[in-house]
Specification:
Number of helices: 12
Strand order of the largest sheet: 6-7-9-8-10-11
Strand content: 15-25%
Number of strands: 11
Structural class: alpha/beta
Largest sheet: 6 strands, antiparallel
Helix content: 25-40%
Amino acid sequence: MTSSVTESIQPIKRRAIALVSGGLDSMLAVKVMQEQGIEVEGVNFFTGFCVEGHTHAIRKKDQNKEKRNNALWVAEQLGIKMHIIDISEEYKDVVLNPKHGYGANLNPCLDCKIFMVNQATLMINKARELAGDRGFDFIVTGEVIGQRPKSQRKETMPIISQESGADDRLLRPLCARNLPPTLPEREGWVNREALYGFTGRNRKPQMALAKEFGLDDFAQPAGGCCFLTDESYSNKLADLWKARNERRYELDDIMLLKVGRHLRPQPHYKLIISREEGENRFLEGYRYQFTSITTVSCPGPLALVDGNFESEAELQQAAAIIARYSKGRSLDEVTLEVRSPDGVARQVTVAPVQPDAVPLAWNVG
């Protein structure tokens, strides 16, 4: 007696790696793919310039704002694995030498997108080496034509695909129907008709789609946590480069530019003065790297000195400025402690400067 066994051939389950910033667009792009049965994993690249909860955690005025990592939160909501990858060192060349120039302020937006997609492309290639059939088939981003003036224009979309090395394995589900079909669409891995044709800066279509998917909690829809898009922050970074007479930065620089009042009384030194108790505590962690000055005769700020005093008069000037921002600003004299990074400290007593003795030109940012 013989029997026949009919084998059913299961279709290959396609896998995509999605660039997830934590904003609404990338969240929707992942969800659109999941609706089509694509298995998605997320990747979030750490550059140092996009630390959403950092200032929210420090400043009292921001204490009610979310302190979550939005990329990880998106991964939790959508049930996907998230890869957090530190590219802060490799990213420096993008910030310092953008081939396509800067967008808003010091944001190298087009070069940034090319770099991020390139990193995802390298992940695809590496995954194929390591996992064989478990590798990724294509890349997904939440880009929308016309949403950003530098990096998300119809004419720049092919530049990103080509220069990143992703070519037509880069799929943009939210605006795909306004672009030529990509490999995943031509091969039938995804249904082009179930993709979208969003354009422009109007967020209403994305908000409506989020409602349709039952997504009612997400980061600010306009997105963009990168400090390089902020004019004040970019001015501080440009000032740092000018003072050092070279274009370089370290991760500590990135963090300190986000905190405190930055004043430059002289070209060779800058004061970073805390504005509240949370910033005081944060700057405490840098007292072994910088000379610090703080009030001792009355409550007041902690200040770091980025640079060096060239005379006792400059030290006295800095102490008088810091006293101006203390509770003793109306007193005749305030005593402050000046502590060097090696812990050696001494006290100075000065008269707080008057408000008009702190020119607006000293304000960095």
